[in-house]
Amino acid sequence: MSLQAAEFFDELCPPFPHSAVVGDTYYAIPVPAGPWRLSIGFTRTIHADTYGGLRAAVLHAERGEIDTVTLGFTDHGTFHRRDEVLNTPRGSKRYGTFDTPPPRPPGLDQAP
């Protein structure tokens, strides 16, 4: 998969030292030797290789999935600035999503 999940989660800086990225999903053990696990993966859209948000799941080592939540990029304005700069129309395939690799608008790729 050409999605750069490892780089995405490195940039997110999750606070769990016992973690790994496998494919496009981040897995963590919040409390070492505890039964709880965390899984964060990208949600797909109806368009190939396009991602619309993140799905976080809390898992128990013996009981399986306990709870999940999906956080849509559009709902949280994740790519609002990028879409505004690129004049991406609402409702289009590109609005509030990213594909592989995510584009960077001019001027946003330089550190201040």
How would you portray this structure in words?
The chain is an alpha+beta fold. Helix content is 16%, strand content 35%. It contains three helices and six strands. It has helices spanning 5-12, 73-76, 80-85, and strands at residues 19-22, 25-28, 36-44, 50-60, 64-72, 98-99. Strands 1, 2, 3, 4, 5 and 6 form a six-stranded antiparallel beta sheet that branches. A hairpin with a 3-residue loop joins strand 4 and strand 5. The two termini are 31 Å apart.
Strand content: 25-35%
- Please compute the radius of gyration using only Cα atoms: 16 Å
Mean of residue pLDDT values: 82
SSE run: HEEEEEHHE
- Count of individual helical segments: 3
Structural class: alpha+beta
How would you characterize the largest beta sheet? 6 strands, antiparallel
Q: What does the overall shape look like?
A: elongated
Low-confidence stretches: none
Straight-line distance between termini: 31 Å
Q: Could you estimate the helical fraction of the residues in percent?
A: 10-25%
Topology, number of strands: 6
Task: List descriptors.
single chain, elongated, 112 residues, alpha+beta, 35% strand, 6 strands
Write the layout of secondary structure elements.
Elements: H1 5-12, E1 19-22, E2 25-28, E3 36-44, E4 50-60, E5 64-72, H2 73-76, H3 80-85, E6 98-99
Antiparallel strand pairs: 1-2, 2-3, 3-4, 4-5, 4-6
